[in-house]
Amino acid sequence: MKLNYEKEIKIEKDGQPHHDPCISHCLSYAFGICEEKHVNICQNCDEFWILFKNLQDTIGESSGDMLNDAQEKLCYYLAHQTRKVYLNSQFSFILGELDYDGAVLVVDYKMRILPKSAREAKDKFFGKKGWTLHSVLLYTKNQDGELDVSAFDHWSNDTRQDAWFTASSLHAVLTSIENKPKWVSIISDNGGHYHNSELMVILNYWHEWYDIEVRNWMFLEPGEAKTAIDSHHAQVSQ
Asked: Do residue 105 and residue 164 come from a single domain?
């Protein structure tokens, strides 16, 4: 299921969900926008329900609650896989729209950087103060049509992660690059340090301050999609 299910989910080139006759693979149906009929269910998806039906018949009603709980958890896992595929496709779509005048910013906070070993009990981990690390990956397109990626890391001995630190980090990036883009798209998680009114008000002034248009800001659900910035933070931790 893990290997084959993701391959069955189709996304159009424009990032829109694709209709599929199998109801389990139809993203349009999951979003509540599908008006087409779903006339069948594929064999692999059907095996999922047949498995639990056979287990129920074999084990009996005594373990019914346990089987229902296991089936529900697996359904949640498939929903997670579906969201991951869709969000990753949106990231690819945004990069595909990139031209010579634009830039894509992928931003994220590292939870906490500790000056000592990370192999310690949780109570000690959360009881200590560390450093705040905010990273920005800047994607641009060069004259050869290839992607250029630059990484910007901003550190602070204050562990606070808020709109003002985020805005300061982005300001440092925009004022340090030589060839400023005419427009940007931003990708982040939906944490309070990004998804807040203060930061959105600041973005409204970017055109006045930097002569840069903010086309969109895409918020990803935590744990639902992985970008290159996760690999960057893993290298920083090492």
From this structure: yes
Reported as a pLDDT band with limits 50, 70 and 90, residue 200 is very high
Per the CB < 8 A criterion, the answer to whether 229 and 137 are in contact is: yes
223 and 107 within one domain: yes
Tokens of 125: 């981990």
The CA-CA-CA angle for residues 78, 195, 123, to 5°, reads 75
Question: Tokens at residue 227, please?
Answer: 């970008």
Which domain, by its residues, includes 52? 2-95
Query: Are residues 158 and 209 part of one domain?
Result: yes
Question: In sequence order, what are the residues at sequence separation of 6 or more whose Cβ sits closer than 8 angstroms to the Cβ of residue 62?
Answer: none
- Asked whether the whole model's pTM tops 0.85, one would answer no
- Answer with the one of 42, 63, 95 that is the final residue of a domain: 95
Number of C-beta neighbours around residue 129 at 10 A: 10
Closest-CA residue to 137 (of 118, 127, 124, 151) = 151
The domain that holds 125 is classified in CATH as 3.30.420
